[in-house]
């Protein structure tokens, strides 16, 4: 497969800073064996949806009270939702407490290890696993995932470590979506990016 060019990336993700991201993503595709047009198309389609075409690299936790109740109906009551609403740091520390390797709410781990990167890396345990795999101090410096080179490598590592190349080879795009999202949220948009990526990469 040809290296991903800025022109190819801009065709798939018009909103992205293609000149910045194409070299980083091209390197990650090679490093993590995302080395066929089918694999690369599925990978780039998922990134496009997850990160709003590489323009949103940090989790937005600025929820209203109604948003909290809809997103986490088992964790909030109308009373607690009103207290936490529009306080992103407080929300993160509450909803992510004692999950994915995080400490309790006062530890601040929920906010410190909130979702970042093209495929949002979330939770201390996941930052630690990525840090070990990439040999990078991500647990000590979680904001490093926002850099293009690091973020692209984290996304590639996540993809490979979850066996998504095999699903891409089988064109099981719904299965890939479940592995990334936990469900099929945004499947139609993801599939639109997938079709666009296939055309850009000349399948």
Describe this structure in words.
With 203 residues, this protein is mostly helical. It folds into two domains: 6-56 and 147-200, no CATH class; 65-112, no CATH class. Helices cover 57% and strands 0% of the residues. The protein has twelve helices and no strands. The chain has helices at 6-12, 18-31, 37-50, 65-71, 78-84, 88-95, 109-112, 124-134, 148-161, 164-169, 173-181, 187-200. The longest helix is centred in the N-terminal third of the chain and has 14 residues, at 18-31. It is globular and about 55 Å long. The model has no long low-confidence stretch (mean pLDDT 97).
What letter string, H or E per element, gives the SSE order?
Answer: HHHHHHHHHHHH
Number of helices: 12
Query: What value does the Rg take, in angstroms?
Result: 17 Å
Domains, number: 2
> Strand fraction band?
under 5%
- Largest sheet geometry: none
General shape: globular
Q: Class by helix and strand content?
A: mainly alpha
| Low-confidence region ranges | none
Mean pLDDT: 97
Separation of the first and last Cα atoms: 10 Å
The proportion of residues forming helix, as a percent range, comes to 55-70%
What is the tally of beta strands? 0
